[in-house]
Design brief:
Distance between the termini: 32 Å
Order of helices and strands: HHHHHHHHHHHHHH
Structural class: mainly alpha
Helix content: over 70%
Length: 403
């Protein structure tokens, strides 16, 4: 039976996730389309994925040391979250600036995503402190399922608002985007409030080791931690195919198949419905078979995604296929989150996660640019099938982590 504290924190976790879903789904489905309306093209779609990881490469480890060294981890993560939320407002102001609006938007988006990733890294470590392993999978599954329902509703509302405006009235549509970013900012502040309500046992005092000493200890231990090294290798290979395909999906959807905000909304809703249906099933699967087995099956489905995108010739096919993509993505995100926590040592966990994220950041920053280049010199189908290849072979290397 769950303790009173676990039950309370589970409710707070769901509420926190609900308002995070509102903020994310008001804006995320339309980020690439907004870049296009501001004048951006294919290279901007690649930079949307790459820039946060380029910046993150230099900041993950210092940020993790700060989070790990300060007794009140919750407050430190909360400050990082607040900085990320402020960029919703900054992006809302982009249309008022002169010059290259699309580039300024991509830069703001990059820094917003950077703070988001640092927050996620801290949240991942924080949740491991708040919930015992036996409760963690179920709790995160419940959060994800409810967030998916709310996400569907928000995507539908956002898509309808954007679709009601004349398609050729770019200025009016941009104004509606500004409204959505402001609403996302308000929702994100409520998300932050619920994060501050978690109850957990804070460290009684600061660690005696200084920051550089902690980092040195971790770096010295990593070569002897074969399982952690195997995780980095497997995840790097997977992220080549995962992140490398992101701008390709955008190019296929927006540039080749000419999706409007209405179609983007429909595709996102189908994916969200699929995520909602499959999240609890993935959680049950993980409880029965383990996170590693769930990750294997999820990645197999993820490998199908780029091939299906290559075969799609119209937006209806793409929308229907996102049933599979939504299921695959939800399972992969949940499994990778839990599997990483499972593999990473408890001592100095945040710094281990930061080292992991720093290495992944290099891969995630370069891959979108490489695959966009492959698209330019060959074809979108060649680039997509190459991405699928890396996703498939990653499973072999994840198996090595389990062995």
């Amino acid at each position: 039976m769950k303790s009173k504290n676990v039950r309370y924190n589970s409710k707070i976790n769901v509420l926190n996730g609900a308002f995070q879903a509102i903020a994310i789904n008001l804006t995320n489905p339309y980020l690439a389309k907004f870049a296009q309306r501001l004048g951006g093209g294919n290279i901007y779609f690649a930079l949307m994925t790459s820039i946060p990881y380029f910046v993150g490469f230099f900041s993950y480890v210092p940020s993790s040391i700060m989070i790990e060294s300060i007794p009140d981890k919750q407050r430190t993560i909360g400050i990082t979250m607040f900085l990320q939320k402020m960029f919703f407002l900054a992006i809302a102001l982009v249309p008022f600036f002169g010059g290259n609006k699309a580039l300024l938007y991509i830069i703001f988006l990059g820094f917003m995503n950077l703070f988001q990733q640092i927050s996620n890294m801290g949240y991942q470590s924080f949740i491991a402190d708040v919930f015992p392993p036996i409760d963690r999978v179920h709790t995160m599954g419940s959060r994800s399922s409810i967030a998916s329902i709310i996400g569907m509703i928000v995507i539908f509302v956002g898509g309808r608002l954007l679709s009601l405006l004349p398609k050729d009235n770019n200025n009016e549509i941009i104004k509606m985007y500004q409204v959505l970013f402001i609403l996302a900012f308000i929702a994100s502040l409520i998300e932050l409030f619920f994060f501050s309500r978690f109850r957990y046992e804070k460290s009684k005092k600061k660690k005696k080791e200084n920051s550089l000493s902690i980092l040195k200890t971790v770096l010295n231990d990593i070569p002897n931690n074969k399982k952690f090294l195997s995780l980095i290798l497997a995840s790097s290979i997977f992220h080549i195919g995962w992140m490398g395909a992101q701008p390709l999906f955008t190019i296929k959807t927006i540039e080749i198949l000419k999706a409007t905000e209405g179609w983007i909304s429909a595709i996102s809703i189908v994916s969200a419905i699929s995520s909602f249906i499959f999240y609890p099933q993935w959680a049950k699967f993980a409880e029965r078979k383990g996170n590693a087995a769930q990750l294997t099956f999820s990645i197999l489905l993820m490998g199908i995604a780029p091939i299906a995108y290559a075969l799609c010739t119209n937006l209806l096919q793409l929308t229907v296929f996102n049933v599979v993509l939504g299921a695959a993505a939800s399972g992969t995100i949940l499994a990778l989150f839990n599997f990483t926590i499972e593999v990473v040592p408890n001592k100095n966990r945040t710094i281990y996660i930061a080292v992991y994220n720093t290495i992944i950041a290099v891969v995630a920053a370069v891959s979108p640019l490489i695959f966009t280049y492959i698209n330019e010199v060959s074809s979108i189908n060649v680039a997509l099938i190459t991405a699928a290849f890396f996703r498939f072979i990653a499973n072999f290397f994840f198996k090595k982590v389990r062995d």
